[in-house]
What does this fold into?
Amino acid sequence: MYEETGATKIKVTPVCVYKEMEEIPKEYEMSKIMLSDELPANLTYPDTFKLYFKTVKEKMHLN
It folds into this structure.
């Protein structure tokens, strides 16, 4: 979060369902939006995203 926002202390809010999405502007770092029940194999930060994904699934009672 520090790199993205400069925040040094954060409180995470529960995850919600996205209702509307648009195309990502070409100048953004993200290349595409991907909706999936599983993590993709080629992640930039695999350990971090695996932890996030596990935590979200637990909060949503999907484990």
